[in-house]
Design goal:
heterodimer, A: alpha/beta, Rossmann fold, 3 domains, B: 2 strands
């Protein structure tokens, strides 16, 4: 996606690969090699299935055998009990896989990291025992002698290879479609930082469910085809750990998060392990597993993201070296030191009203009964010592936390109970204390992730993203890779990502943290420009000098409660506030 | 004998089996708990390392018969215990040469990447061990057969001449040894200097480093120790359970279920977690067909991760 290869270009690559594959199918000397080619395609498809969920979204699945096995049994049992032709059985297996994906996904997506991976491991193993218990230890697909072709039975192995190729092409196109649309963007954002994605308006749960449904469908269909090829289905051959592992390994070996990864991985590993199995299988029965295991160990140690990315990084490195001599971005030497005086700023109509908001975690009252109003176009500074509940307040405003009590009224609607993506859709954007760039993507793509929430099509989203970059003065950095940006640019890029969703209110959580004083000035200049354009801003900041230059109004929190609010100048003189937060030094200065 | 008494006898029999198997599972889980708890590394190869432990015990007692002179009662137990140090060496070097590349201080900066790499690396090691085991040991199931495997002590009859509970000797001896080993580990971790260093490294890597603890070495030892403990449990299981090189996958789920149930990071919790899994597995046979007893474990495991990811016994809450 980073390279922005268009869909048409990948069609070209696909056509060439298909031609080579067909050529191989028709020149290889015997059935054995045809079967191997078929298996390459099958495992490439299975790898793509794994990649659609785990490669793109980062949720590692050790349980893809569940979908594969259900597909295989759908075709086998359909043919055995209902005389259902695999031509119908394959799409049906895909459907079964998709449904299984959703059923698995609904509860399992509540888990993250280790727990998700472990839970996924349990599904195929549980199914394995269930199918054994049901008495399906060995299901043979019955031969049909009158009309074999109608039952996907051919004596010429090349036809199977061609069918496998067709399935592979479909899988590549689906996967490529995901990569190049907002679907892929959403999954990638989830992979990088699920909370940030949700806050940028991406309905993470919905996209994850779609991904696992598509992934399950692909795995189910190819599992069904595998049953046709093997003729005999056993629980151990389709639900085993090795099936899940093989899907993961071809994808990871070739390159994670790109459609070509599984294809490369399968093209190298399957022939290698099959050949070893054929040559040495009698003396070394587990040689396939050893090859896969070794492959995966080596990849993790030497090229953790797979061959595709390793080679791509090697190619682009020379490119990057050429660009490193670039002139430093001209520092804006605008004087941002003046105190802000915008007497009319607090006179606008109320756009956001917080009423009696509280949040406790167990016995800890993080925020207690906080109420305030935010007028349109104002800049509200939220200050208070560490642990005062500032970020918790933000987390309630944008939907990360559900308040224990209280209301958040935005344009007449109570936002309490909405998902973060829903809050974002209504026009509240935010940035985070810790900047989280999507490192491999370009700056423009990073911002684009935030643009989809208010754009109906890709073109509008792209326009919004460019406008947002212009607002923060980063148009010329659009094509740079986000991972290499200095921290100020990362902050501005995050700001642009929030702006791309066209928010009415921006929540900025310590956007100046970790910046030097000249960089702070530059960001302040950008923020002031934003306020002039009419955006309402709530900002948490520890740098008091900067706050005084930005905010029209201060809200002071201490121990989760509202300690006071008012004009920054007055707040700075309020002895209560000084004592609670600012300390003696500030009192002396005041 | 009335239906009620049959039911009672079946229940008591399943309960006794559950408690005995539970002790063995508890020990296995304690081994994994050391690794998961101290290093936060998901080790998929734990079941396969256990498989190595089972074969080590088998070769010591049956295959090469080095320990056969100890007789059919002491010999198998001694073989299981000796498998511990052997697998300690395996675990120690496995960590030094492979696992340490994707754990510890070196990957701390790359937030999620570390976990991801660990999962996959240990999966690769698991595949190599399973299939390498197939090459080395063959696919024929073996077990450490002794007179104990097929004899039992009878408790009862408890009601008149009815209701007897039979305790398989191999299982009971295994259970007792498991409890002793687990107690020994507990004392080691809580009372000795090295044990304290291990716990400190688990608590806070940086602080431990400042206190002069060699965290890398502590991790290697913890990994070796965790491997050794699980291997001993495996050696004990081998006295009543036939196994082959793929046996690890059956137990890896048992172990993770137990560790998660016990609460991550709690070694004592891991033992109780394993015990619970043993009870669930055996008691489920009262209501479920025997083929589905492992499915019952998966069901319990899934329920626990969904509803109490901090574990039933654990206090440390960590949701990634």
């Amino acid at each position: 996606m980073g390279s922005r290869t268009t869909f048409m270009q990948s069609l070209g690559i696909l056509a060439v690969l298909s031609a080579v594959y067909l050529l191989l199918v028709f020149i290889v000397p015997n059935q054995y090699y045809q079967l191997m080619l078929t298996l390459v395609a099958i495992w490439a498809v299975m790898g793509i299935s794994w990649n659609v969920l785990s490669g793109y979204s980062g949720l590692v699945s050790f349980g893809h055998a569940a979908f594969f096995g259900l597909g295989a049994y759908t075709v086998a049992l359909g043919l055995l009990h209902f005389n259902l032709s695999p031509w119908i059985g394959l799409p049906l297996a895909g459907l079964v896989g998709a449904v299984a994906g959703i059923i698995v996904g609904l509860p399992t997506f509540r888990l993250r990291g280790h727990y998700f991976a472990l839970a996924m491991l349990a599904y195929p193993l549980a199914l394995l025992y269930v199918f054994e218990w049901l008495g399906y230890q060995e299901v043979a697909l019955p031969m049909n002698r009158e009309n074999p072709a109608a039952y996907m039975q051919f004596s010429d192995g090349r036809i199977y290879s061609v069918i496998a190729l067709v399935l592979l092409v479909i899988a590549v196109l689906v996967s490529r479609w995901i990569e190049t649309t907002r679907f892929g963007m959403a999954l990638l954002a989830i992979k990088q930082n699920e909370l940030a994605a949700e806050a940028a308006g991406i309905e993470t749960r919905k996209w994850k469910l779609r991904a696992i449904a598509i992934s399950g469908a692909i795995a189910g269909a190819i599992g069904g085809f595998y049953a046709v090829i093997l003729i005999v289905v056993t629980p151990a051959s389709v639900f085993s750990m090795l099936t899940s592992a093989q899907a993961l390994i071809v994808a990871l070996f070739g390159g994670i998060g790109t459609v070509w990864g599984p294809v490369i991985g399968a093209a190298i590993l399957i022939p290698l392990s099959e050949t070893l199995h054929a040559e040495l299988g009698n003396i070394l029965p587990g040689i396939q597993g050893v090859v896969f295991g070794t492959a995966i160990v080596l990849v993790i140690l030497l090229a953790p993201e797979g061959i595709f990315w390793k080679i791509r990084d090697l190619i682009t490195r020379s490119d990057r070296d050429g660009r490193s001599g670039e002139a430093p971005v001209a520092t804006a030497l605008v004087d941002a030191g003046e105190l802000l005086e915008r007497p009319e700023a607090m006179a606008g109509k109320t756009v956001l009203e917080v009423k009696g908001l509280s949040k406790s975690f167990g016995g800890l009252k993080a925020v207690q009964d906080v109420s305030f109003k935010v007028p349109e176009g104002a800049v509200i500074g939220i200050i208070g010592p560490n642990g005062a509940g500032k970020t918790t307040l933000f987390n309630m405003l944008n939907g990360f936390h559900t308040p224990s009590s209280g209301e958040v009224i935005f344009e007449g609607e109570n936002l309490v109970g909405l998902q973060p993506s829903g809050v974002c859709k209504r026009g509240i954007g935010r940035t985070f204390q810790v900047a989280r760039p999507f490192a491999r993507l370009s700056v423009l793509d990073n911002v684009l992730v935030g643009a989809y929430v208010r754009a109906d099509d890709d073109a509008t989203a792209l326009r919004h993203a460019r406008e947002a970059l212009a607002l923060v003065g980063m148009e010329k950095d659009a094509e740079r890779t986000a991972g290499g940006l200095p921290s100020k640019e990362q902050r501005l890029m995050e700001l642009a990502r929030a702006l791309a969703g066209k928010p009415k209110i921006l929540l900025l959580d310590e956007i100046l943290a970790g910046l030097g004083s000249s960089e702070i000035n530059e960001v302040i200049v950008v923020l002031r420009k934003l306020t002039e354009s009419g955006i309402t801003i709530l900002i948490i900041e520890h740098t008091m000098q900067a706050m005084l230059r930005l905010a029209d109004h201060f809200i002071v929190l201490d121990h989760g409660a509202l300690l006071g609010e008012g004009k920054p100048r007055n707040i700075m003189r309020d002895p209560k506030v000084i004592e609670a937060y600012l300390g003696r030094r500030w009192r002396e200065r005041a | 004998m009335s239906d009620g008494l049959i039911l009672l006898e079946n229940f008591l029999q399943a309960l006794a089996a559950g408690l005995m198997v539970g002790c063995l599972y508890g020990l296995m889980c304690t081994g994994l708990g050391m690794i998961f708890g101290i290093m936060r590394v998901i080790n998929f190869a734990q079941g396969d390392l256990m498989m190595l432990g089972m074969y080590a015990a088998w070769y010591l007692f049956t295959g090469f018969g080095i320990l056969a002179f100890l007789g059919p009662y002491v010999g198998p137990v001694a073989a299981a215990i000796v498998a511990g140090p052997l697998l300690f060496i395996v675990g120690y070097f496995l960590h030094q040469f492979l696992i340490s590349r994707v754990t510890g201080v070196s990957v701390a900066a790359s937030d999620n990447q570390g976990h991801y790499a660990q999962l996959i690396l240990t999966l690769g090691i698991a595949l190599i061990l399973q299939n390498g085991g197939l090459i080395l040991f063959g696919s024929e199931p073996v077990s450490i057969r002794t007179p104990m495997s097929s004899s039992a002590w009878e408790i009862g009859p408890m009601v008149g001449e009815w209701v007897s509970v039979f305790l398989n000797k191999a299982r009971l001896v295994g259970a007792i040894v498991s409890v002793l080993v687990a107690l020994g580990l507990y004392v080691f971790v809580n009372r000795t200097r090295l044990g304290k260093a291990l716990r400190a490294s688990a608590d806070n890597v940086e602080a431990a480093q400042y206190m002069g603890i060699n965290v890398d070495r502590a991790h290697r030892i913890a990994f070796g120790l965790g491997t050794a403990i699980t291997a001993i449990a495996g050696g004990l299981v081998a006295t009543y359970y036939p196994f082959q090189p793929y046996v690890g996958i059956e137990f890896v789920i048992v172990m993770y279920a137990g560790v998660v149930l016990g609460g991550l990071g709690s070694i004592v919790g891991a033992f109780w977690g394993g015990m619970t899994i043993g009870l669930v597995q055996q008691l489920s046979t009262l209501v479920l067909p025997i083929q589905l007893q492992n499915t019952a474990i998966f069901a319990v495991f899934l329920l626990v991760v969904f509803f109490r990811p901090q574990g039933l016994f654990g206090k440390s809450v960590e949701r990634v």
